[in-house]
Structure prediction request, 91 residues.
Amino acid sequence: MTVLLLLGFAWLVHRFERPLHFAVGYSVLALLLGLMFESIGWALALGFLGTLAFSAAYFSLLNRVSDTIATWLAVLVGGALLWFFLPLLAA
Prediction:
């Protein structure tokens, strides 16, 4: 579900060109989802900070390469796949 939200926020970044605003919004939304499904603690706080760092870098990169559609789509798909498979690789 978070990958779909990530793609939705990426489209919003492309549309409104505010990558840091949407990175904070995505991270807060992920934090709220984490509060609903996980316990409160250090893992949730570190997850929020990791999500904020990744989404800020990802959305800034998407905003930077938005002039060519092929590069933008490659970064969009590559970042979403990385976000999906990174927790699987870490486990």
Q: What stands out?
A: The mean pLDDT is 89. Residues 2-90 form one domain. The chain has one domain: 2-90.
